Amino acid sequence: MSFKYKGSKVLLTEGINDCHVISALCKHYKIPETFGLYECGSDELALKRLTALLATPEQIETIGIVIDADNPALIAKWQAVKDRLQKSGITAIQDAPGLTGTIIPSTNGLPKVGVWLMPNNQIDGMLEDFCSQLAHPIGVGFAEKCVNEAKANDVTTFIDAHKTKAVIHTFLAWQHEPGMPLGQAITTRTLNPDNALAKIFADWLTQLFQ
Fold it and tell me: Can you give the pTM of this predicted structure?
């Protein structure tokens, strides 16, 4: 499936896993299909496309962007978003991301803009940290112990920044369909779509694109 939507209401993401996770949550919460997803390939490419859409002569009503709060950290990533918005003419921007996601109303003919920094707009992290919150706490906790032991025994090669990726995929390796993708794990409820964080994210999406 290709996620390269080019309509008037679009949600920009870093990668394909983000798209599948968001699609699964949209289906679970029956969020109206008033927008499309655009996979950009990286956080920097997502920011560049945000800038391009804000400058496009085409009629863009709403732009959402979902990127990881890493590389290097939450505050730096928020500042990168703010800088691009301000250069595009959007100046009424809060100092910190909203705890339940950020939505900036349309002003001066510019699109309405929404920002979500994975996992929860409050801490450094990524999509996998978001998904870990949806996992059974005992199961994902045990997966983390296993990953830590593997690391201690020098049988791993992942970088420290990707530890959460190792943990969530270790957890998923033990389920009824070992190794299922993150989006499918939500659809099958291996990852709980009714988790409070998932509900907050779904509410942000609904408010942004209503």
Answer: 0.95
Going 89 to 32 to 99 to 22, the CA torsion angle's sign is: negative
H or E element: which one contains 184? helix 182-187
pLDDT tens digit string along 109-157? 899 999 999 999 999 999 999 999 999 999 999 999 999 999 999 999 9
Cis peptide before 119 (omega within 30 of 0): yes
Cβ-Cβ contacts under 8 Å for 42 (sequence gap 6 or more):
14, 15
Domains and CATH numbers, the chain: 9-125+194-209 (3.40.50), 127-187 (no CATH)
Please, how many CA atoms are within 13 Å of residue 160, restricted to the half-sphere of its CB? 2
112 in helix, strand or coil? strand
